[in-house]
Amino acid sequence: MKNRQKELAELHQRRLEDGNGPVSAFRADLFRMFRKNRAAALSVLVILLLILAAVFAPVLTPYSYDDMDLGNRLSPPSAAHLLGTDEGGRDILTRLLYGARISLLIGVVPTVVSILIGAALGTIAGWRGGITDTVIMRLADIVLAFPSMLLAMVIMFTLGDGLVNVFLTLALLNWAAVARVVRAETLRLKNTEYIEAARAIGVSGPVMLLRHILPNCLPTLIVLFTLNVPAAILTESSLSFLGMGIQPPSASWGLMVNAGKNYLYSAPWICAAPGLIIMVAVLAFNFLGDGLRDALDPHQKNR
Amino acid sequence: MEQNTLEISHLTVSFPTDRGGFRPVNDVSLTVRKGQIVGLVGESGCGKSMTARAVMGLIRSPGKVTGGQILLEGKDLLALNGKEMRSLRGNELAMVFQDPMTSLNPVVPVGKQVEEAILLHRRVSREEARKRTLEAFRNVGISEAEKRSRSYPHELSGGLRQRVMIAMAMVCCPRLLIADEPTTALDVIMEAQILQLMRQMRDRGTSILFISHNLGVIAQLCDYTCVMYAGRIAEQGDTRELFERPVHPYTRGLLGAVSSLDRKGEELETIRGSVPAPGSLPAGCPFGPRCGLCDETCRGACPEPREISPGHIVRCFHAGEVPV
Amino acid sequence: MKKKLLSRLGQSLIALLGVALLLFLMLRVVPGNPAAVMMGEHGDNAAIARMTAELGLDQPILTQFFRYIGDCFTGNFGTSYSLSKPVAELMGGAFLNTLWLALAAALFAWILGIACGVIAAVRKNGILDHLFMGVSLMGVSIPVFLTAMILQYFIAFRLHWLPIAGMDGWKSFILPAIALGWNSAGSVARLVRSTLLDILQEDYIDTARAKGRSQLGVLVFHALRNAMLPVVTMMALQLSGLLSGAVITETMFSINGIGRLAVQAISGRDIPLLQGTVLFSTAVVILGNLGADLLYTVLDPRIRKGGGPQ
Amino acid sequence: MKRFFAVLICLCLLGSCAAAAGAEDGLLRTAVKYDITTMDVAKTSDDYLIPMNVFDRLFETRLVNGNPSVEKSLCTDYTVSADGLTYDFTIRGGVVFSNGSALTASDVQYTFERLLKINKQNTDIAVEVSGSDKVLKGEAETLSGFTVKDDTHFSVTLTEPNAGFPAELSSPAMSIVDRETMSAGFGTVPAETIGSGPYVVKEWAVNDHYTLEYNSKYWGTAPSVKKLIVSVVADDSVQNMKFLSGELDMIDLQNQDSAIVASTYKMDPKYSSRIVSTRKVGMYFLALNNTSGALSNTKVRRAVAMAVDVDDLIRNLYNGDAIRETGAIPTGIWGHNADLKPVAFDPEGAKALLKEAGYSEGQIRFEIALDSSVPSTVANMCYAVSSRLKAVGIAAEVKTYEHAAWLEKRSSGTMECFVARWGMDYNDPANILYTFFGTEEKTRQRSINYQDKDIIARVAKARAIVDDSARLAEYRALENKLIGEDMAWVPLLQDMHLYCLGDRVESFTPHWAGFADFYAADVVLKK
Questions:
Q1: For the CA atoms of chain A, what is the radius of gyration?
Q2: Cβ separation of D237 and A262 shorter than 8 Å?
Q3: N or C: which end of chain A has fewer CB within 10 A?
Q4: Global pTM?
Q5: Interface test with C, best of D44, D238, D260 (most C CBs within 10 A)
Q6: Which CATH superfamily groups domain B4-92+174-314?
């Protein structure tokens, strides 16, 4: 703890000298992290690029994601189609850009939802203990124990395909793991001195969770976020393998990789493009996660 | 005359950082004679622990020893290769650390950890090692040694754990014991017992290099004391003479800041300013900016150690003068 | 210790019952009448109605539920609708294959994972560190079926080193183990690396070196022993995950495992087979989690005596 | 660390020799995508390989210079009564089942009765015998219309005349089983599945493989293949790799994308000469629910037909391996009308017709339901149809359903539009017309919902016309009304079934109707 306090003071001092207001610990860490950890900075750039590509997809490409040109199916990258065409004669670059919308949403939305549910239930279970803890944890055990692919299939069969159902499925699959981690973290925090001190001065339950427990879980939650986002994108491609998830003609990276699988040796570019983009996204999220965790985790001795 | 246990001359340890290197230990020389306890005292961050680690060869990368000589009974430790150094560590040369809570392996019974020290340096059977461990426990005053040796670190009190550390260090009868603030984490009663133990070891011929920031402990225990400031030894000398007739302004400032019964009611002196950051030492004498006697010569160059009386060495141009 | 064990077992049973209940409700909600699926393209509605009655699916929900729970406890899951073979027999064969695949994948993942993790930690920020961490990230970012396909094409098809697919002899389990294990190896390596880096900063490492331990000795006897605690828990969870069947790897390598059987059961709305496979793999996962907790308390003395985080 | 990799490398080298396992002679190795579910033909209408190879039938249908012809097999001679109701059969004597039990006329009777008692699948032929309704209801143990004279002679009386009866007796459903040694494990336990055909079932490992071996007691000529191993390989690319590396002797290219078939097999001289293709007797059609919304209007259905470019589908999705279909009776089936003209691809004409029918741009919306388990070529067909219809202002979105959910929606009669295929079981138009337009319940259950009641009645009655030319004329008239006038569905195409033969196979004659299941006896291995 000591050297971080000193660094903060140092930064604080410098900010005061050049007339800015006091610097909040959070922003100072981010500022310092980006200066020090170039990989994290680069990954933020990459993620921004992906988001921009997703948003400006219609502008960037003449085709629409479902234009089928059966005449030149499976044609290699050419001037007309920079990344070639897939088995339905659709332009791969266009589908990649439109796919970015769905895949990033699939990566982010269910992960955020599952982390919110998981964190809430996890802290409550950890803090209250007793019956609530057992009930929540047994519920989590059930979801964790149930073979995830089967659970996904049952949900998708019942509700049918479509983006919202994929969100629901992925959120349902992931919340239990988050809850379990957050509960363990809450238990650990519960018997640290400063929590007992806060309890001693009469801080009430909900305030305790929001002001003291959750902020300390932040580094873990951020790491979970950056690990689960790429995992969600990949799970979607497994869902496509089993015939669920996003269905053509709409596009997502996972779907494209799965659709291209059978053509791996006759038309490898169908898999290569989405496969590479997924890898780039995974690396970006992971480096960002590592960077954030190191920056925000106070007792993280520098690696 | 008799061989000195430890002779450190002009030792320098440097750490490369992106803002140019810095030297936590800068041209340090001191000697520990056989059966003598030498104290190394100073504020945190002055380099005393780093000096101890240099002797043990435990400097963690990216830092490394970049100058000087360390003689253990005439052998230069810096010239030894890894294997030779390892055969000394725990055998001829041992160390005890500050925080007993974290210095023992949490998942291994304490008895086993001490046996390990024996088995590393003595070709004896496991059974013999067990016997010596129990004996070592008894020497350091651990009651019910048999039961204690089977328990895990988290099942023992702080004092007991420190005794285990000392037993572990002493089990191979090392020539030199380095104790890095062994009592800082203990309460007063435990501290007294540990110091008593140290005196017994000294009487049995073990030389001890005792590191602490607590002047009171140093005064009670050490025969000879060195005061460190910003990587250098500001003043060293016989403990009694040093405490009664400090000549270096920093030593005086330190002693002035210590409250004691016979100076009840007097204003405690404080030393203005704060310890310079490791990388940005002022030109000339490091204590200059905080020193009442500081003048051009002090700012010009860093004073060399001068022996103003037998065994009493000081790094100051105006040693002994009293500010006007 | 006994009391904690019993309460954990009790909770696991409740979880298993919960899964059975959840499965029963799901099967009533999922569209597609099992009888219709069995009759396939040619079945007409009259035949389907007759089949529904024969399977007892037209009885009131409650009677079906109690018969279902009765089956679960007595362990007889009856005969599979589509394969008209006893479910237990089908699962027996399938589980053996899944067991071999899981063990092979786990072995590959752990040996590679721990080795890479240790080397990456020791050579922190060196070339090997970035190389191994990069490879482990690759494992996480390529879908399993793509890894399987690439392995099959180059190693099996082009080089003829190993059989492409099928289950003849131990050699046909090497490639599936690599494809399935690579992902787990990645997470093990990353965990070993970060835990080891934490532990190497601890004071008792300095004590060990001060005792005269060599760098390797410190690593093996002191650092790894402590680093293994969280890693072993992750490995136990991974193993129980693998044991509940890896649908994609089994499909790609034509291994008749529990995962594939379960997917076949749900696509064919084969209720007895589905009950059997799901309850079986759930029981395996729950036992795995239980094992992981117990293993943790055995390995970490700090928890064994006192309560400690569960 | 280096030691570890060295061990791994030599471990693999050691294994290299075993990969391409040597194949003893007389062995044929093939693969299928999905395992069979049962060996009992009374319980399945999909898994026909074992019934076809392990059992005999009274007749067999073979391709004779391109046309299916019904040949005698167990039956050596038969006569039909004047009113077409009664058939007198003589069967081959001295035929035994693989367990030595004799095959007699009473076994044939037992086969008919067993189908009716189980009453799960393939009962539509046994139902035609008089007295079948009593057996179905359990009121009678035996079929009144079936009289056994002696071991090799029996006669069958139908409830109404059906000239296609001998052709129906050649379908796998009518495989003769043994009355005396029938046991509970029949159809699930290999040793208890006893037939009189050229092969016996040696073993069946679920989801892995099944093995057939030559039946030494077989009455017919010994086939070239003495042992058949069919392994279950779910992934198409893995099947390709196993075939190209010599682990399979024959590969069924039905599920593969035509582009892969073209690049991997057609373009490669080593294999291009070894491709066997046969007509898959049946047809793909775009089903339009005649009662849902705008599709109930004949003009709209015709506009849909005009908007879809079938030739483009054949050229690009089937790489030319398909022929266009124009009516309801597929090519290769007796009664097919070759000079029915296809609907010309005319998007502008379609738009005009839609306006004429009173529908503006984008006003017509319906859903094309796609079964997720169909091959990718069929899925691409749906997407192609959808984008063609969008071009003429019809908003037809493709929605994917899981197989069971798709089946349920279709059987409920509410599915608006879907691409489907009907494969012919026997060589008679009734097999398709009666199934889709035979009764109001049947057409509703297939989500066609054809509305013209007296046409439905005529389709049912047409089966009973004994005189071939009269029956032909009636079927032709019905086809003209159903498709020509009412466009009940949009006929698409009939695809070919392609196989590729390995080095060890001399020749192969596929099933006459292009089934994936084949007679192992029709494969000749190189010596």
A1: 23
A2: yes
A3: N
A4: 0.83
A5: D238
A6: P-loop containing nucleotide triphosphate hydrolases (3.40.50.300)
